[in-house]
DNA sequence: CTGAAAGCGCTTACAG
DNA sequence: CTGAAAGCGCTTACAG
């Protein structure tokens, strides 16, 4: 009653096991009549070749790529979905399989287990920290991976990331051209998360360059937190006329806070938010947006990993994507 | 330069391969001193046991569960995330691993490949059609799976699903108690998708029971389509005072259409939408909502699959969850 | 407490 | 065109 094997088929078809194997893989010519006999035996017995044994014997890879997404929010944002669809598109095109590894923790053990089990050939990592245990482990174990984001020390790493300097530079250029002098930044207060750290640094750099005094207000990921943050900012600094918000979700709340004070956007106040996702489509107001080109970045990350897996040289393994500033429509 | 194997470690430690294997698995006592020698050899060589070989030799399962999510929208909705988090929580608790298989197609071939490769032990299927190729294939091949949703013919299937009859019944009870006589349904027009078909049927049944004449308007998944649908409905049937919308996303647009005509919610118009996700938090208006308890359903589906995999009997393998009607707050 | 050997279900040089 | 045999890297009865 056990699952039939190649040996069973061979017996039934009156050939050797190797012939069955070759008939399956088409790696050498088989006469038409034995091919037919084998075919028939396969169907009669319902052979389903054991892929684990095949992998062991032929030392082949799984052709699966693990996309590692720590679930920071219980909800997945539209931005995360863009990364996912960009990566999975590129992965499928290259005839690999996309596997989403969505875990609530960031433990390296989990990844190691996947790699060792042969489940995946390599990883694409999201939500990269400045010091990232997962990166350390993967590097130590010699497991192929690519980052979307980057660490503090990136020697030897392959990554794609946002050109945050460019993002803030162009935002400041746009805002100052419209006459703004007080440009606040509603930032994510997280000194581990690479993006937050770098964005903060580049905000200060932009302030320097444009001769504007920095105005910071930390802000969480929800609309409510955006509202609270903007209210707190406007209470303390009524002179502010423009703000950059680190995510589009709190932007919704921030906009409400501004409007509740009777200030019109963009006439009385300008707001730029990082990335739009489905959420911006739902708000009655669409702000100016820094489009970080998430899908392109993710597709490139996937291509990098595939190159790594196939021992293709990568000319520029640390790639920054300059984002596009998209002005609001409503 | 190849990866070291158990044989290499055995040679270096001066023991047999089986002793190394037993030292690794702790399946029989090893003397302290040979254990130490083996341990040292393992570390010196950096042994990483080949999990594929182990699986083949010990005929064990992967303990991975595939959560199959056809990407109907490019964006993943908050509702889908609820299913994912509910299922992954239950799966992790049972010491299995959650793998999200997010594909843009619904091809059975893909699933078969995963199952045969030994990558996953079984599947949880989302977006089930009345006639579903994937279900047919999995049944034919004898691969364990559980549905979130159901087919036309469900003999022998294990599933969890929304009690749609209850959902519409309680919505109608609520609306008629408030005096509504004209209750429209903005439905998804899809005669393959089980949920749509059943919801439509139950809407008609509820109309019968409450003596209300059916008023249908088909409606897509985006806010824009919700707006268009509601406008079209109100143009043709200005007498309508209440509507049930099949998803929360178009509800956002539908609400705008209603408000644009100067009608107040809930005073002049009542609206109930199926499920809230992050999106409802963003709209300035929160409608009454049919909470389908997605996380509980998904967790139950996961438990069913684990029971199936571990040959545990399932007393009620076809389970309907009565949803909760949650009234709006703003 | 330890070893020699058979086996898991395939693949693939080596022969003919 | 086909077969006998060794091998992939483990596990696990069988012996001692």
Describe this structure in words.
Two copies of one chain form a homodimer. Chain A is an alpha/beta fold and 330 residues long. In chain A, 46% of the residues lie in helices and 16% in strands. Chain A has 13 helices and twelve strands. Chain A has helices at residues 6-13, 17-25, 32-45, 51-58, 78-93, 108-116, 133-141, 164-177, 194-210, 223-236, 248-260, 278-282, 294-309, and strands at 64-70, 97-103, 122-125, 145-148, 159-162, 183-187, 216-218, 242-245, 270-274, 288-291, 318-321, 324-326. The first copy, chain A, has a six-stranded parallel β-sheet with strand order 2-1-3-4-5-11, with helices on both faces. In chain A, strands 7-6-8-9-10-12 form a six-stranded mixed β-sheet, sandwiched between helices. In chain A, helix 12 links the parallel strand 9 (270-274) and strand 10. In chain A, helix 1 (6-13) packs across helix 3. The longest helix of chain A is centred in the middle third of the chain and has 17 residues, at 194-210. Chain A is elongated. The termini of chain A are far apart. The model of chain A has no long low-confidence stretch (mean pLDDT 87). At the A-B interface, helix 4, helix 5, strand 2, helix 6 and helix 11 of A face helix 4, helix 5, strand 2, helix 6 and helix 11 of B. Chain A binds a DNA duplex (16 and 16 nucleotides) through residues 5-7, 15-19, 21-22, 25, 27-31, 34, 49-59.
């Amino acid at each position: 009653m056990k699952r039939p094997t190649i040996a069973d088929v061979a017996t039934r078809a009156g050939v050797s096991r190797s012939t069955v194997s070759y008939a399956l893989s088409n790696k050498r010519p088989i006469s038409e009549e034995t091919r037919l006999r084998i075919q028939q035996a396969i169907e009669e017995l319902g052979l389903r070749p054991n892929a684990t044994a095949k992998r062991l014997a032929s030392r082949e890879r799984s052709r699966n790529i693990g996309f590692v997404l720590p679930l920071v929010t219980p909800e997945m944002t539209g931005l995360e979905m863009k990364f996912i669809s960009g990566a999975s598109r590129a992965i499928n095109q290259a005839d690999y399989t996309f596997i989403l590894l969505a875990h609530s923790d960031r433990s390296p053990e989990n990844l190691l287990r996947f790699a060792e089990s042969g489940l995946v050939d390599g990883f694409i990592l999201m939500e990269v920290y400045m010091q990232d245990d997962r990166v350390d482990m993967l590097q130590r174990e010699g497991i192929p991976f690519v980052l979307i984001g980057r660490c503090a020390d990136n020697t030897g790493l392959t990554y794609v990331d946002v050109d945050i300097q460019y993002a803030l530079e162009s935002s400041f250029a746009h805002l100052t051209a419209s006459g703004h002098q007080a440009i606040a930044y509603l930032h994510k207060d997280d000194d581990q998360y690479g993006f937050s750290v770098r964005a903060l640094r580049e905000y200060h750099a932009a302030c320097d360059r444009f001769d504007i005094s920095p105005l910071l207000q930390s802000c969480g990921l929800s609309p409510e937190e955006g509202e609270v943050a903007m209210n707190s900012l406007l209470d303390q600094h009524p002179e502010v006329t423009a703000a950059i918000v680190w995510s589009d979700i709190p932007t919704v709340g921030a906009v409400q806070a501004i409007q509740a004070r009777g200030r019109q956007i963009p006439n009385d106040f300008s707001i730029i938010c990082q990335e739009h996702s489905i959420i911006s489509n739902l708000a009655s107001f669409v702000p100016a947006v820094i489009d970080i080109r998430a899908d392109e970045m993710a597709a490139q990350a996937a291509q990098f990993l595939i190159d790594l897996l196939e021992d293709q040289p990568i000319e520029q393994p640390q790639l920054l994507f300059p984002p596009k500033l998209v002005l609001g429509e409503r």
